[in-house]
Amino acid sequence: MRELKLDQLRTLVTVVELGSFTLAARALHLSQPTVSLHVAELEKRLEQPLLVRGFRQLTATPAGDELVRRARRLLREADDAVEAVGRLRADARARLRIGASTGGLSRMLPTVMRELSAVWPRMQLELRTGRSPELLDWLAAGSVDLVLVAEREALPDTVVALPWHRTPLVALLPQAWQVPAQVTPAWLATRPLIVNEPATHIHGQVMGWFAQAGLQPTVRLEMPFEEVAAGLVGAGYGAALLPARPDWTRVSDTLHVRPLRPALQRSVVVCHRKAEEPGSLALQVAAAIRRLQPVD
């Protein structure tokens, strides 16, 4: 016995719902003889009438009602199957380019990339690193789809920043120093300081922290890498103001970790273009990243 055909079932459901071969043909973009043939083949296959052909309208027989009820479920499942396979095909073709600033933020990248790969296993994830200003320029120009950068006051007009993660800055101080419970600009200004590169956001924050107190720090070295800066602090080369990390406490035998007064914090944002369509892959990934570490 021949199998039931989905296109015939869809035709029958449409005929019953609209009550007319003509209207069903119009809705399905078929000719009326094709619609009649679909119904006739179903009736022949099941060996019983499925429709009562009245003067003005068609109605279903009890057998027709039963078949229509089950056909609706089959058609829904078939549509779901096609959609699911389409999503897999889209994931396989999908490519997302993520830009991230270098320095301390690079520590978060392995977690971000691992989690995104778990959610979208077939998606091609491309990662580019650089300084925040150039990353934002790349985003505005369409060279990347998302960027992870420290929060900035000035953004391109075409870019939206979404808050992601805030981390307090702390003072890392050589173990040999006699240090207060909280570090102030006045206390630290006369001591040698290891700072990040001038183009970075954290450099501007640190300099602004001293400037608000009317002071200028004694810069001994510019060092963009947090681990290297911490090692130099432990060697007694100078102090550094860096985002708090649990592993700083694990090297407490070589350095002091103290809070700042007034406090500073680094805020990381996820940026995308304003022109992104609702539900786009970039917005879905941005939402997934923000769920990894809620804003404090």
Describe the structure.
It is a single chain. By secondary structure, the protein is an alpha/beta fold. Helices cover 44% and strands 23% of the residues. It has helices at residues 6-18, 21-28, 32-46, 62-93, 109-119, 132-141, 185-188, 201-212, 226-234, 246-249, 281-292, and strands at 51-53, 58-60, 95-101, 124-130, 146-150, 159-174, 192-195, 218-222, 239-243, 255-259, 265-273. The strands form two sheets. Strands 3, 4, 5, 6, 7, 8, 9, 10 and 11 form a nine-stranded mixed β-sheet that branches. Strands 1-2 form a two-stranded antiparallel sheet. The longest helix has 32 residues, at 62-93. The N and C termini lie far apart (65 Å). The mean pLDDT is 87.
